[in-house]
């Protein structure tokens, strides 16, 4: 049995199986996370501290359209099956985007469901997540990468009812620089542009009716987790941004879930250094749409 400190993982994602009383932990688990991809695994536990596994849930065959950058798997239950959203670097075009896989069980095996990536073919995109709007329509929310646009964006695109493909064109919800807390940087590959990162969007319906979005960026080169909010509760916004990030200790790409006891939990990876990244769990409390770390006692 493994403990959290034994598991090298980025972009942790928890699926709570309440019938079993178990947690399923997915994430980016390749040891060389920036290179060749081997697939995705799951760890299974009952207390967010101890885990069995890893158990393979996806291994690509030779015909699969990617063999590099297998990132940020999320597993969502939808219409009787489980759908895995994950980022891949495409062999033919060299572009990065999110595709959708499908399985009848949480342990897979997951098989390709979408025809390649669902994000635009000519965009560098990553970290797609599923959101069901108030009318019951499925959307993918994802990042348009800073390496292509400089000021990284959070975008959304409608999905077909069976999640097999996109419908229409993507819309831009906001750019990273619209929030007060991220800081810009220059990069030797792109010396003429000022850059802001957007990573790992995750949507959460707050108790006060607001729609919250977790997303990650950098503050003075330190990875951080921030929150934006649609006070209308609609994906289309308008979006407002908290002045200060939720987590600033070199960690991010988080998601929220309620544990077996109904407590609100944040999981993210920290530190943001390979191979040191580990899953972190932080209990939160929610008040009028505001999230903060729960203090014992």
Automatic annotation (TrEMBL):
It comes from the Bacteria. Pathway: Glycan metabolism; L-arabinan degradation. Pfam families: Glyco_hydro_43. The keyword Hydrolase applies. Keywords: Glycosidase, Hydrolase. SUPFAM superfamilies: Arabinanase/levansucrase/invertase. GO terms for molecular function: hydrolase activity. Belongs to the glycosyl hydrolase 43 family. This is Glycoside hydrolase family 43 protein. It comes from Gracilibacillus caseinilyticus.
């Amino acid at each position: 049995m493994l403990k959290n400190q034994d598991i090298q993982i980025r972009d942790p994602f928890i699926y709570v199986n309440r019938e079993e009383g178990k947690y399923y932990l997915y994430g980016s688990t390749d040891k060389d996370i920036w290179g060749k991809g081997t697939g995705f695994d799951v760890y299974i536990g009952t207390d967010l501290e101890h885990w069995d596994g890893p158990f393979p849930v996806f291994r690509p065959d030779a015909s699969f359209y990617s063999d590099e950058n297998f990132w940020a798997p999320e597993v969502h239950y939808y219409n009787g099956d489980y759908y895995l959203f994950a980022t891949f670097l495409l062999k033919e075009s060299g572009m990065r985007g999110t595709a959708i896989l499908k399985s009848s069980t949480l342990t897979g095996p997951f098989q390709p469901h979408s025809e390649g990536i669902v994000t635009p073919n000519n965009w560098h995109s990553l970290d797609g997540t599923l959101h069901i709007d108030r009318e019951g329509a499925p959307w993918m929310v994802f990042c348009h990468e800073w390496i292509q646009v400089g000021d990284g964006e959070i975008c959304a695109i409608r999905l077909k009812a069976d999640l097999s493909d996109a419908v229409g064109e993507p819309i831009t919800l906001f750019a990273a620089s619209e929030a007060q807390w991220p800081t810009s940087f220059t990069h030797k590959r792109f010396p003429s542009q000022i850059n802001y990162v957007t990573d790992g969007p995750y949507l959460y319906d707050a108790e006060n009716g607001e729609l919250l979005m977790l997303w990650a960026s950098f503050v003075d080169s330190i990875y951080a987790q921030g929150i934006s909010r649609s006070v209308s509760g609609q994906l289309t916004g308008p979006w407002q941004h908290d002045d200060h990030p939720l987590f600033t200790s070199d960690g991010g790409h988080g998601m929220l879930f309620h544990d077996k006891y109904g407590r609100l939990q944040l999981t993210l990876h920290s530190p943001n250094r390979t191979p040191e990244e580990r899953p972190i769990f932080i209990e939160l409390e929610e008040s009028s749409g505001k999230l903060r770390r729960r203090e014992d006692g």
